């Protein structure tokens, strides 16, 4: 029943599927079924136009710089905090409730509060990215330390290994893969957070641009922007997945 | 190729790598852990209050004023009515996402051909922030219940599909071989092996999908502000009523925790035959 | 009776053809207990799966009880190395599963399953779940399940491979006793252990690897009836030791070739 397909057939079927969907999009759009659905080629043309337009480039720059500032710092902080929590039980007990809360509650709800605190500018978006990203990195790093095999620790101690050696040769290498996957997950979250934050704030970045297109009923531009964001997300996650694979498991 | 890359792991409760047997190890770890956790949350509330004391109450209201605003809202009928208005599209979208997501997920999990065909689309919609689709939905459907339900639906359906599909995919091959060796036909293999075998993943899909539906509900409220809880939020924000704004956000968090707790209860019932260790 | 004729099985792995077994000719007579043994990679499990009807060979046919097979059938039942019980079903329902698959009514199949479980010494455990049972007990359920459908051919894929040494010995003895009452059932038994093969079988099918093929078929010269008593005798041990060294030689030769390939 669940037989495996060769890699080639998978890719082939996937490609056919995408082409088919685009063709369907074009046909339905040309048929004029709904003014909300323009034909694919118009969206493609709009995308090309957008890429060269100043307003679009400005928005993209805004979003990307916010992410570029917030993401590395948050990841670093998250890795450090997660490692400390993994090593020191008291710290773990102290911060666990916050991390669990952050992952059980829709973080979008915090955005109005962040707007209230920081206004309608870049700082708010950075704050949103931090809030979206930090818990994921921390939780996965802690899980990485949890995955350490107690037998390996016992073995190292039996040979008289110092704490530093234990950390370097057993704890960190074990925790690294899970921490790396946390970073990958966080990247997706960072983009989603930045965009939705910009949508709610309304005026800035790609999210704000999308809201403006929507308000102006500029459907071709709207879909073009959506496709752009989607592809951006895929590219970023793909890149990080490749980097993640290089972390020795 | 695993389609599903987006689950966050929950922390396991194994002891971390400290050595000396502390007081806690002698009296059991649960009580101290909860104590420190609660204390930490309390400390957080106190820290907030200290900050709020010196800050402008328009931005950072005192914990006490947030609390009294919260209590006040609980007694306000408009508050409950707003939630009622918001809950209708939430439930519609949630139900649709469960039905469509689970069905589609099972189909994808069982057929590698369909998996290959659906793969790129699922990856795209998984990577895309669903909130970007809201303006398009508004243009297509307006801002009525259908549009709102669609937002909730879209937020949830992808996760439900991916989680359910991966559960089906990873049903033990040997069990299927065994079923086949005893002459079990396709339909019976589905009902007697695949379905029970993927029950835990299906329960997880429901839980995760519900959490996503709540997110969708909040996004819907924040972007389509005309009625319901979103209307309250924009009113208090524009009116600089910080305590009530914080209180409404708090109510959303409580709602999310409540729904999450409910789902975990249901999920716990999904595998009575399984070991008790998580 | 199992009649294997010119069976060859070639898989494709990422475009490269890989021959698991080549040109197998073997006949297992009615009531015969045949062990299939060989170094890792000799295709013994593949061969068993072909007999079971789970895998269709690229060439050749298998005839069971006079009929050419085309998939699984009621005259053959499998016992698996990892027991493969349904974790969500009770011991009783697990033992009845083969019958359920064949469409036997609930009352009837539970009755038969109860009988088989009793023969396996598991009376009283009918309402337990597999996870509550030890490995040996779980495998007994697996055997009960197979015997419940009353197959004329029992196919076992390293059934004791996942058990500890002591349990394994006990199960072997029990299987031997079971076979005394088995009324002309035929058995194909895949194993890694020459001791086990000599202990249990009438004939041993020795396979070699790359490509998987039958190297030799050896008659076990000790009558089955007092096999348990004969185990300590010198000629029995010599026979077993000789066969072990044959197997060892094949495995080493294979390891050397693989090493040379790098």
Structure characteristics:
heterotrimer; A: 249 residues; MetI-like fold; 2 domains; 10 helices; C: 262 residues; alpha/beta; Rossmann fold; four-stranded antiparallel sheet; 9 helices; 39% helix; globular
Class computed from helices, strands and strand pairing of chain C? alpha/beta
Order of helices and strands of chain C: EEEHEEEHHHHEHEHEEHH
Q: In whole angstroms, how far apart are the ends of chain C?
A: 43 Å
Q: Judging by the overall fold, what is the CATH architecture of the largest domain in chain C?
A: 3-Layer(aba) Sandwich
Instruction: Report mean pLDDT of chain B, rounded to a whole number.
Output: 85
Helix percent band of chain B: over 70%
Q: What Rg of chain C, in angstroms, do the CA atoms define?
A: 19 Å
Poorly predicted runs of 5 or more residues of chain C: none
Task: Identify the CATH homologous superfamily of the domain at 78-271 in chain B.
Answer: MetI-like
Biggest chain contact: A-B, 87 and 79 residues
If helices are DSSP runs of H or I spanning 4 or more residues, what is the number of helices of chain C? 9
Q: Might you state the CATH topology name of the largest domain in chain C?
A: Rossmann fold
At the third CATH level, what is the topology name of the domain at 78-271 in chain B? MetI-like fold
What's the alpha carbon Rg of chain B, rounded to whole Å? 23 Å
The low-pLDDT segments of chain B are 1-21
**Helical residues, percent of chain C:** 25-40%
CATH top level assignment of the largest domain in chain C: Alpha Beta
Written description of the protein model:
The complex is a heterotrimer of chains A (249), B (278) and C (262). Chain A is mainly α. In chain A, 83% of the residues lie in helices and 0% in strands. Chain A is built from ten helices and no strands. The model of chain A has no long low-confidence stretch (mean pLDDT 91). Chain B is an all-alpha fold. Chain B has helices at residues 23-27, 30-54, 63-74, 77-110, 112-127, 134-141, 145-169, 173-181, 186-197, 199-223, 228-238, 242-268. In chain B, helix 3 packs across helix 12 (242-268), helix 7 packs antiparallel against helix 10 (199-223) and helix 10 (199-223) crosses helix 11 (228-238). Chain C is an alpha/beta fold and 262 residues long. Chain C folds into two domains: 1-75 and 152-239, P-loop containing nucleotide triphosphate hydrolases (Rossmann fold, 3-Layer(aba) Sandwich); 87-150, no CATH class. In chain C, strand 4 (59-64) and strand 5 (67-68) form a beta hairpin. The longest helix of chain C is centred in the C-terminal third of the chain and has 28 residues, at 234-261. The radius of gyration of chain C is 19 Å and the shape is globular. Chains A and B meet through helix 1, helix 3, helix 4, helix 5 and helix 6 of A and helix 2, helix 5, helix 6, helix 9 and helix 10 of B.
């Amino acid at each position: 029943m669940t037989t495996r397909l060769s890699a080639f057939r998978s890719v082939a079927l996937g490609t056919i599927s995408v082409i088919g969907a685009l063709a369907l999009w074009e046909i339905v759009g040309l048929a004029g079924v709904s003014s909300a659905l323009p034909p694919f080629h118009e969206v493609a043309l709009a995308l090309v136009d957008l890429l060269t337009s100043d307003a679009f480039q400005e928005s993209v720059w805004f979003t990307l710089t916010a992410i570029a500032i917030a993401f590395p710092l948050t990841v670093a902080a998250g890795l450090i905090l997660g490692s400390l929590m993994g090593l020191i039980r008291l710290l773990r007990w102290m911060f666990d409730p916050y991390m669990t809360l952050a992952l059980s509650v829709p973080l979008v709800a915090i955005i109005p509060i962040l707007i209230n605190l920081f206004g309608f500018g870049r700082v708010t978006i950075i704050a949103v990215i931090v809030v979206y990203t930090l818990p994921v990195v921390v939780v996965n790093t802690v899980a990485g330390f949890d995955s350490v095999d107690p037998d390996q620790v016992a073995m190292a101690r039996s040979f008289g290994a110092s704490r530093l050696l234990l950390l370097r040769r057993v704890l960190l290498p074990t925790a690294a893969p899970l921490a790396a996957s946390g970073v990958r997950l966080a990247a997706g979250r960072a983009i989603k957070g930045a965009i939705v934050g910009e949508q709610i704030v309304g005026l800035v970045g790609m999210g704000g641009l999308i809201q403006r297109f929507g308000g102006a009923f500029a459907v071709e531009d709207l879909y073009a922007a959506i496709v752009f964001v989607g592809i951006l997300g895929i590219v970023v996650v793909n890149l990080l997945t490749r980097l993640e694979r290089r972390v020795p498991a | 190729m695993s389609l599903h890359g987006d689950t966050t792991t929950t922390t396991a409760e194994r002891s971390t790598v400290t050595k000396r047997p502390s007081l806690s190890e002698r009296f059991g770890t649960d009580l101290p852990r909860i104590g420190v956790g609660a204390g930490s949350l309390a400390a957080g509330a106190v820290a907030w209050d200290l900050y709020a004391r010196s800050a402008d109450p328009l931005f950072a209201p005192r914990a006490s004023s947030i609390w009294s605003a919260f209590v006040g809202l609980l007694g306000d009928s408009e508050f409950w009515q707003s939630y009622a208005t918001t809950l209708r599209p939430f439930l519609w979208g949630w139900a649709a996402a469960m039905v469509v997501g689970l069905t589609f997920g099972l189909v994808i999990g069982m057929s590698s051909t369909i998996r290959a065909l659906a793969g790129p689309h699922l990856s795209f919609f998984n990577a895309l922030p669903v909130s970007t689709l809201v303006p398009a939905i508004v243009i297509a459907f307006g801002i009525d219940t259908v549009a709102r339900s669609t937002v909730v639906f879209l937020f949830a359906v992808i996760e439900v599909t991916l989680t359910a599909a991966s559960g089906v995919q990873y049903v033990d091959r040997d069990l299927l071989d065994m079923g086949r060796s005893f002459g079990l036909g396709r339909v019976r293999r589905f009902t007697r092996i695949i379905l029970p075998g993927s029950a835990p993943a299906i329960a997880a899909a429901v839980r995760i999908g519900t959490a996503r539906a709540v997110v969708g509900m909040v996004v819907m409220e924040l972007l389509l502000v005309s009625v319901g809880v979103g209307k309250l939020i924009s009113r208090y924000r524009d009116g600089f009523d910080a305590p009530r704004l914080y209180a409404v956000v708090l109510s959303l968090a409580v709602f999310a925790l409540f729904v999450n707790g409910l789902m975990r209860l249901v999920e716990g019932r999904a595998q009575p035959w399984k070991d008790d260790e998580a | 009776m199992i009649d294997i004729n010119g069976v060859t099985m070639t898989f494709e792995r990422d475009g490269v053809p890989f021959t698991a077994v080549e040109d197998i000719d073997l006949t297992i007579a009615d009531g015969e207990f045949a062990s299939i043994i060989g170094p890792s990679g000799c295709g013994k499990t593949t061969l068993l799966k072909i007999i079971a009807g789970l895998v269709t060979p690229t060439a050749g046919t298998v005839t069971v009880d006079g009929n050419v097979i085309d998939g699984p059938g009621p005259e053959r039942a499998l016992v698996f190395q990892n027991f493969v019980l349904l974790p969500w079903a009770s011991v009783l329902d697990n033992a009845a599963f083969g019958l359920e698959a064949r469409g036997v009514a609930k009352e009837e199949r539970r009755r038969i399953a109860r009988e088989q479980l009793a023969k396996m010494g598991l009376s009283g455990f009918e309402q337990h779940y597999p996870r509550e049972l030890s490995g040996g007990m779980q495998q007994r359920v697996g055997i009960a399940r197979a015997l419940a459908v009353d197959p004329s051919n029992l196919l076992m894929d390293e059934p004791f491979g996942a058990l500890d040494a002591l349990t394994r010995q006990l199960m072997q003895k029990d299987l031997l006793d079971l076979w005394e009452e088995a009324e002309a059932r035929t058995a194909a038994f895949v194993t890694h252990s020459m001791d086990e093969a000599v202990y249990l079988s009438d004939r041993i099918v020795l396979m070699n690897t790359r490509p998987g093929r039958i190297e030799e078929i050896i008659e076990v010269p000790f009558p089955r009836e007092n096999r348990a008593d004969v185990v300590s005798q010198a000629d029995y041990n010599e026979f077993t030791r000789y066969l072990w060294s044959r197997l060892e030689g094949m495995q080493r030769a294979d390891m050397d070739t693989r090493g040379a390939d790098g």
